[in-house]
Write a structure and sequence with these properties.
alpha/beta; three-stranded mixed sheet
């Protein structure tokens, strides 16, 4: 019922890509694969597990619910898990306004007021998260860090608790995507600004 109610606009395009363009072959059974992956991480007793987004396909409430059920008790273990939103987790303006990702996975993302956020994930290892996911027009899957977040990130890196920490900066998009139309549509629009900032701060 929820799918039918939202089966319009960008989600209609996403559904066509899923069923007609072969995406189902890659993303079908994602819940089962996520469960196996998390169980494997637990079995290996990893120090910290980082997910950089796209827990959902079209950011429906039901999708977040299923993923939250898979995570289970891990949702209250931010010392072992970090989850960032991907562009599919903010697929539409409505999902962003309702803060669906934050409601379901905010405990593993960043506390208020949000990202960029820094947390120690091990002795001498610090994780810095950047939120670049946003709702976009159909056929546009690009991300944006934004001027305000870049300024906050610069201040956060400048005021680092320890200059000796190994810093891991995590975000949904790659900073150096391959060339081509698909990568242009799926790129981080201000990747150069972010890269220059990280270089200037020695990260």
């Amino acid at each position: 019922r929820e799918v039918l109610r939202h089966f319009a606009g960008k989600r209609l395009i996403g559904a066509c890509k899923y069923h007609l363009a072969g995406h189902r072959r890659h993303f079908g059974g994602a819940d089962h694969r996520l469960r196996r992956l998390l169980d494997d991480l637990d079995a290996q007793d990893v120090d910290h597990a980082l997910c950089v987004g796209d827990l959902t396909a079209t950011s429906l409430e039901s999708e977040f619910l299923r993923c939250a059920e898979v995570y289970g008790a891990r949702l209250v273990q931010p010392q072992r898990h970090t989850v960032l939103p991907g562009n599919h987790d903010r697929y539409t303006g409505g999902s962003a306004r309702e803060r669906r990702f934050e409601r379901w996975f905010g405990g593993l993302g960043a506390p208020a007021p949000g990202m960029p956020f820094s947390k120690q994930i091990g002795p001498g290892v610090r994780l810095v998260t950047v939120d670049v996911a946003r709702p976009t027009w159909p056929f546009d899957a690009s991300g944006l860090c934004g001027r305000d977040q870049l300024a906050r990130l610069r201040a956060l890196l400048t005021e680092a608790p320890s200059a000796d920490d190994f810093v891991i900066v995590a975000l949904h998009y790659g900073l150096c995507p391959p060339r081509g139309l698909t990568s242009w549509l799926c790129r981080l629009r201000d990747a150069r600004s972010l890269t220059e900032l990280l270089d200037a701060e020695g990260v």
